[in-house]
Amino acid sequence: MVDPDEPSPSDPNLREYLHWYLGDKESCRVFVTRDDDGYPPVPAGQEMVCYESPRPSMGIHRFVFVLFRQLGRQTVYAPGWRQNFNTRDFAELHNLGPPVAAVYFNCQRESGSGGRRRQ
User: Fold this and answer.
1) Which residues are bridge partners to 12 per DSSP?
2) Which of 14, 28, 95, 102 meets the CB 3.0–4.6 Å disulfide criterion with 83?
3) Angle at alpha carbon of residue 9, lines to 7 and 12, rounded to 5°
4) Which residue, among 81, 103, 68, 106, has the nearest Cα to 18 in the 3D structure?
5) Is residue 35 part of a domain?
């Protein structure tokens, strides 16, 4: 999951920001069931870069999930950074081929008193 609008859509000089990288997922099944607490299960795979929730500071940000199919058994290493990640270069480096699926959502910071507060 990447944010191509980091730190702001008008000046994305940290583009792309890597929020999550899940590798070695063996199947492309979409989970629609819920666990006992009502949450969808975490997809199987190896979390190479731990999930970091979206926290856009200004403007409307796009958050993009991209799915690649590994062409064979290979070792794909996690990058050592989150800022200035490049999905296209990463896929080329690891011979992942073109994406087989992608989806995005928009997110923005709540206006007012700095967003929601945890209690």
Assistant:
1) none
2) 14
3) 50
4) 81
5) no
33-69 pLDDT, tens per residue?
555 666 555 556 778 899 999 988 889 999 999 999 8
User: Burial, 79: exposed, middle or buried (Cβ in 10 Å; 0-12, 13-18, 19+)?
Assistant: middle
Please give, one letter per residue, the 3-state secondary structure of the chain: CEECCCCECCECCCCCEECCEEECCCCCCCCCCCCCCCCCCCCCCEEEECCCCCCCCCCEEEEEEEECCCCCCCCCCCCCCCCCCCHHHHHHHCCCCCCCEEEEEEEECCCCCCCCCCC
Residues 90-108 as b or e (16 or more Cβ within 10 Å = b): bbeebebeeeeeeeeeeee
The rounded Cα 79 to chain-centroid distance in angstroms is 13
Structural domains in the chain (count): 1
33 falls within a domain: no
Domain holding 60, by residue range, is 1-28+40-113
Is 119 within a domain?
no
**Is 14 a domain residue?**
yes
- Can you give the pTM of this predicted structure? 0.75
